[in-house]
Amino acid sequence: PVDLVIDHSVQVDRFGSAGAYADNLGWEYRRNRERYALLNWAQQAFDGFRVVPPGMGICHQINLEHLGQVVIARDGWLFPDTLVGTDSHTPMINGLGVLGWGVGGIEAEAAMLGQPMFLPKPVVLGVRTHGQLPPGTTATDLVLTLTQMLRAHGVVGKFVEFFGPGLSSLGIADRATLSNMSPEFGATATLFPVDANTLKYLHLTGRGHIVDQVESYTREQGLFRTDDDAEPTFSEVLDLDLSKVEPSVAGPKRPQDRVALPAVAQSFQAAVDGVAAQASAKEIARLVAESCSEAGEFLKAPPERLEQPNAAGSVTHGSVVIAAITSCTNTSNPSVMIAAGLLAKKAVEAGLQSRPWVKTSLAPGSRVVTQYLDKAGLTPFLEKLGFNLVGYGCTTCIGNSGPLPEEVAKLVNREDLTVAAVLSGNRNFEGRIHAQVKASYLASPPLVVAYALAGTVLGDMTRDSLGTGADGQPVYLKDIWPTSAEVESLIASSVQSQQFELEYGRIFEGDDAWKTMPAPTGTLFAWSGDSTYVREPPFFQHFAEAPAAPSDIEGARVLALLGDSITTDHISPAGSISADSPAGTYLVEHGVPRAGFNSFGSRRGNHEVMMRG
């Protein structure tokens, strides 16, 4: 069986307003009409193929909250649930005790056609956990700590498996956050065992009907974890003390570069040194000093509205121009989402607001998130800070952050500013989040809100004020940071199984635009030679039924010899298409205006675009 979730195409064109979600979804449909018609055709042409329409969520979060079964019942047999996915963050489902990982398109297509998946026996690294997360820290802080630790150790091509008494304090949402970032620390998979927390999560997410089957099977097979279990044997073992985790972000351009909050400004200044290496030391010092001076105590002056003539003039080196609560990495975790809402509530009540140059957005990976934020009464406070719903999809995390406000974009270009994005995503490679944003920091959702209030990364979140309150007094992060008790109380009263049952009971239906979309029917797809989105691939033209005998490869040459920290984004971008790039030139030559370029991710159905990417 195959499930395809449409989640990578929505862009943040409109933000900070009540109509942002509807507008962005409408533009998504218009931009991707040809692609969506193909997918609409496919779901009626193939058995065992289901499509989750646009505007429903992110594939990994939907898999975690609904599709994952832990144990499969088929043809009279019970066996462990497994999967492969065409996105590198597929291991997120490992947090539920389901083994799965990301593969390439060809491997996925082979699996869809019934071929087995081959791999060498992996090295399995065990992570022994003990202790509990300290008050004031989040699962995001933990995963950034883990990413730093495992990158330093080296886990590329390995399986990581968690064990130890510390697991009892980690709920499934916390575990899924850790498993989600497997590709960032280099592991193929990051597996958690099935235990009592797994069963509790299945009940919460509307899958109570499978709990008895999951528990009985995993206990019988020796797959069910308890605190009294003997310690498993692994190829390698590392220790992780949860009590040592501290509030952190990661950046400004690699997810393994964890930075404690007091050191964020220094990390940014070091990045300025790197990107401005051609400038004199004196000039760099001037830029940094000027930025720090203007930042002051996080720019305490009352914010101006962006439409005022000099509002964008406050933007300088280190200014936060994008603050995005985004990505299944964190929006799948009610603890950090409720914390973000509570922090927003306290900030509004204190008289703070987001800085006018910050592009703010909220893009959950599931429609359940907005249900429980509404029930908790936190949505109005997030909206007052500009964190209106912009879509249910990957958005900023995949580079679909949309354009910066025009005044800000012009100033960044004119002054060649090194500005920053802060997002609750999983990747922050240079230029990935936005072509004009050189520095990006990964952070928990409540810290994303805090940085929107501050408007800059040049400061110490633990000591400097976020701004001036309605009473004229400085407001500090510690003043508005929610307690663990506050978060847990709201989760208990606001996150309910009925919300999951409601939303996932209609997950495959789609809206009226999806239901009424003109699409081909029948068993063969009608290719259009004029399409710049979906073109018939050349691989099966002149294709013999019997494969040719293998022959020697002669005259092969190295295409690229690369250094360290080269990412897939450097090799094949997934974000916006530049007008002066070979791909942009191709689209212009085929009559596509600049406004209609869309993204590389959306053009993957056209090999002519991708081989120019």
Give a structural overview.
This protein has 613 residues and is an alpha/beta fold. The protein has three domains: 57-244, Aconitase, domain 3 (2-Layer Sandwich); 248-504, Aconitase, domain 3, CATH 3.30.499; 536-613, no CATH class. Helices cover 35% and strands 13% of the residues. It is built from 24 helices and 18 strands. The protein has a four-stranded parallel sheet, covered by helices on one side. A four-stranded parallel sheet has the order 14-13-15-16. A hairpin with a 7-residue loop joins strand 11 (248-250) and strand 12 (258-260). Helix 5 runs parallel beside helix 6 (172-180) and helix 13 (334-350) packs parallel to helix 17 (445-454). The radius of gyration is 24 Å and the shape is globular. The two termini are 32 Å apart. Mean pLDDT is 91; it is low at 277-311.
> Which value, in Å, is the CA radius of gyration?
24 Å
Uncertain spans, ≥5 residues at pLDDT below 50? 277-311
Number of domains: 3
Numbering strands along the chain, what is their spatial order in the largest sheet?
Answer: 9-8-7-10
CATH topology of the largest domain: Aconitase, domain 3
CA distance, first residue to last residue: 32 Å
SS-based class: alpha/beta
By DSSP, the count of extended strands is 18
Q: Please summarize the sheet with the most strands.
A: 4 strands, parallel
Number of helices: 24
Shape: globular
Fraction of residues in helix = 25-40%
CATH class of the largest domain: Alpha Beta
CATH superfamily of the largest domain: Aconitase, domain 3
Average pLDDT, rounded to a whole number, is: 91
What's the CATH architecture of the largest domain?
2-Layer Sandwich
- Portion of residues in beta strands equals 5-15%
